[in-house]
């Protein structure tokens, strides 16, 4: 036994002892204890925070837990309330239910946007109190703790007032055991004293037990029992007067100093050094089932009161933060509106270089002014093609030679350059005359030279770096040429079909004759909005509560995952339905995107995608410690889904194996299903449609199950980092 342990034992075991066999010993009833901690060991990584710690808190007393900053007081209290789990050791509480204790954490851990009244109501509902009971208790605590007007928002009151509200919340349900982590820190000495008076009052008159930590050692003199901690070890556990007597000191500070020096002299070795022979977590995560059981049990898996509390809080937070609520409500409108305005339209006024050697400038380019048949020569076909290109809004830039034109493309001054050779129209006429003459007239055909084909062709050099623009320029040059030539055949009293290429595009089976990129992208954009907006909202709201320690506090007050999730679903569903309605209205009613299907299945599918997003948000909030981590996860997965789910480019263009992976991602099949429902009008019985529903539904199950399992297995899900 070390000297420090002997010292501790000598102090701890100072109750009346039998001194000799024949002495009559008064029967002193052993006081039952409110909290008993035995051989508690806790470490963070290699840092040992609690080392073989024993502590006994008698019922109906104030137990002052004292020690320097970082000695492990908060860790010990966290283990007692079940916020953390010991690595080894045992904690026994007199009370068995979560509702038997009231815990005030060191940090505020309350919603800053709620009023004092709303905060009381929220925690009152969590502890299943009626509205009347909450009102009465609120009045009592307001007087006892000298709280300001209950209408005030927590953000609007001072830090000291906030701490008193936090203490009031811990006392709201009148628990048997109060565990208070530095309740008087930063408070006016008069207010601190009034809190001590209150605690003395409730221990004496109501038999409550209080464990309190404080940095102000002298104020702890008012407790009936004191535990002195240093470097994770409880050095002494005694009544203040006994402690002073044993140490022969007049102040607790001196007594503490003496005990510390005593310990330091004999056992001053860092407890962070060698790992102790305790059960070490060998896996990346610590699993709850590997650890000693939590000291308190939750009374019920689900209570309507706690669910009501969570809904009440969610609605009040939305009501309090109107700009955020409006933003979340109308963001889909803004996103889809801007998408339709900014994307999908053919680019206009593109600069196109031209060198037309076909005719000299004295020849008119107007179709109206020539009734001649171009097959006879003399009709400026090149000019007419250029006229058509101008009508398609190209800005034509004239060059006087081929070199300058191609140089302008290289210098990115124009997107392309087209050249009509000298006598282009005449050579074109020769080609058509020859091709339309009797096919058996071999002698005529053989007279066409390569030069005629070459001079009778349009030469185009195009900047291909922008695929969409270059494809559009090629398409418009071809369309302009076809328009001109087919019209010219009419003027020659010949069928315009002679000028067409030998391909007849019939009416499209699905979609319209001039499909646009936006028609392809619309279902993708809708799916992304439907998935990510609820994901962001759910993840952000839960994580902001997690970061503020609020969620941990309510979980320690009995709230569980099912209640949090169900309340989130209820409020979020309203948002999802609103968002789906807005997105569909903007996309298909305000803007003219193709919609030929039934509204109901599309609406239902989008709502399911929204629920998938919500479950993903919940999952992110569980696996991420901070909103920054969640933001990275959100941005990362957003890019991934855009690329891999065929939202930007058809999955048919992917490598085989990647396409197989893509099929199982949340937005691949569901987006394809949405496209089939809206643009093709397919029914639910079609595999493309029902597989989309099946896919997103499976993801909802996956996210929910994984979240549930992680909550069961991982012990610090709600602990802020
Ligand atoms: N989550 C954590 N991860 C790693 N180390 C931690 C963690 N929480 C606390 N510690 C370390 O454990 C030790 C004890 O911390 P604890 O908060 O229990 O001390 P304390 O006595 O309550 O201090 P204070 O009075 O300043 O609140 C400190 O060295 C601290 O740095």
From TrEMBL:
The chain crosses the membrane at residues 517-543, 564-591, 603-623, 630-649, 689-711. It comes from the Eukaryota. InterPro entries: AAA+_ATPase (IPR003593), ABC2_TM (IPR013525), ABC_transporter-like_ATP-bd (IPR003439), ABC_transporter-like_CS (IPR017871), P-loop_NTPase (IPR027417). Residues 1-23 are annotated as: Disordered. Residues 35-256 form the ABC transporter domain. GO terms for cellular component: membrane. It is found in: Membrane. The keyword Transmembrane applies. Residues 1-10 have a biased composition (Basic and acidic residues). It is a multi-pass membrane protein. GO terms for molecular function: ABC-type transporter activity; ATP binding; ATP hydrolysis activity. This is ABC transporter G family member 23-like isoform X1. Keywords: ATP-binding, Membrane, Nucleotide-binding, Transmembrane, Transmembrane helix.
């Amino acid at each position: 036994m070390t000297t420090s342990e002997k010292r501790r034992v000598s102090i701890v075991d100072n109750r009346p002892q039998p001194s000799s066999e024949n002495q009559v010993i008064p029967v002193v009833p052993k006081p039952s204890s409110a909290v008993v901690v035995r051989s508690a060991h806790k470490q963070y990584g290699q840092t040992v925070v609690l080392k073989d710690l024993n502590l006994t808190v008698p019922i109906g007393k104030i137990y002052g837990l004292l020690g320097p900053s970082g000695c492990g007081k908060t860790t010990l209290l966290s283990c007692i309330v079940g916020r953390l789990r010991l690595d080894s050791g045992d904690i026994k509480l007199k009370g068995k239910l979560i509702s038997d204790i009231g815990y005030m954490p060191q940090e505020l851990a309350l919603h800053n946007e709620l009023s004092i009244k709303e905060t009381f109501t929220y925690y009152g509902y969590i502890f299943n109190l009626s509205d009347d009971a909450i009102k009465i208790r609120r009045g009592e605590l307001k007087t006892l703790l000298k709280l300001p007007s209950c209408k005030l928002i927590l953000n609007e009151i001072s830090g000291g007032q906030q701490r008193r509200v936090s203490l009031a919340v811990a006392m709201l349900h009148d628990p048997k055991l109060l565990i208070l982590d530095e309740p008087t820190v930063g408070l006016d000495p008069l207010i601190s004293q009034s809190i001590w008076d209150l605690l003395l009052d409730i221990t004496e008159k109501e038999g409550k037990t209080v464990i309190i930590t404080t940095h102000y050692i002298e104020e702890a003199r008012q407790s009936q029992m004191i535990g002195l901690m240093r470097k994770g070890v409880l050095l002494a556990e005694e009544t203040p007067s006994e402690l002073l007597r044993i140490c022969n000191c007049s102040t607790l500070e001196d007594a503490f100093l003496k005990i510390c020096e005593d310990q330091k002299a004999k056992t001053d070795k860092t407890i962070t050094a060698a790992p102790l022979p305790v059960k070490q977590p060998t896996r990346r995560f610590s699993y709850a089932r590997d650890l000693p059981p939590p000291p308190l049990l939750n009374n019920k898996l689900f209570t309507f009161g706690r669910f009501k509390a969570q809904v009440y809080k969610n609605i009040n937070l939305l009501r309090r933060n109107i700009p955020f609520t409006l933003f979340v409500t109308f963001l889909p409108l803004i996103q889809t509106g801007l998408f339709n305005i900014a994307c999908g339209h053919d680019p206009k006024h593109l600069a196109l270089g031209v060198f037309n050697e076909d005719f000299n400038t004295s020849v008119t380019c107007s179709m109206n002014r020539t009734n001649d048949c171009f097959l006879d020569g003399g009709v400026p076909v090149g000019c007419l093609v250029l006229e058509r290109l101008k009508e398609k809004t190209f800005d034509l830039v004239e060059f006087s030679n081929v070199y300058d034109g191609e140089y302008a493309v290289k210098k990115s001054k124009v997107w392309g350059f087209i050249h009509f050779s000298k006598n282009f129209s005449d050579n074109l006429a020769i080609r058509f005359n020859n091709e339309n003459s009797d096919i058996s007239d071999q002698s005529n055909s053989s007279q066409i030279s390569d030069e005629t084909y070459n001079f009778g062709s349009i030469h185009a050099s195009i900047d291909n770096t922008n695929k969409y623009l270059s494809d559009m320029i090629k398409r418009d040059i071809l369309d302009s040429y076809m328009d001109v030539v087919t019209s010219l055949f009419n003027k020659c009293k010949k069928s315009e079909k002679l000028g067409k290429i030998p391909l007849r595009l019939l009416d499209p089976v699905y979609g319209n004759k001039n499909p646009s990129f936006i028609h392809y992208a619309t279902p993708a954009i809708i799916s992304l909005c439907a998935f990510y907006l609820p994901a962001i909202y759910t993840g952000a709201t839960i994580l902001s509560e997690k970061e503020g320690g609020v969620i941990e506090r309510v979980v320690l007050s009995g709230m569980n995952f099912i209640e949090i999730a169900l309340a989130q679903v209820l409020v979020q569903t309203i948002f999802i339905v609103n968002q789906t309605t807005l997105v569909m209205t903007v996309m298909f009613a305000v803007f003219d995107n193709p919609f030929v299907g039934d509204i109901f299945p599309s609406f239902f599918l989008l709502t399911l995608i929204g629920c998938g997003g919500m479950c993903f948000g919940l999952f992110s909030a569980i696996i991420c410690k901070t909103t920054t981590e969640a933001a990275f996860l959100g941005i990362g997965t957003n890019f991934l889904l855009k690329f891999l789910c065929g939202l930007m480019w058809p999955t048919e263009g992917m490598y085989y194996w990647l396409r197989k992976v893509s099929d199982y991602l949340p937005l691949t099949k569901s987006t394809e299903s949405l496209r089939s429902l809206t643009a093709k009008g397919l029914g639910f019985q079609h595999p493309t449609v029902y597989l989309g529903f099946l896919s997103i539904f499976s993801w909802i199950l996956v996210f929910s199950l994984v979240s549930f399992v992680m909550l069961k297995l991982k012990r610090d899900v709600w602990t802020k980092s």
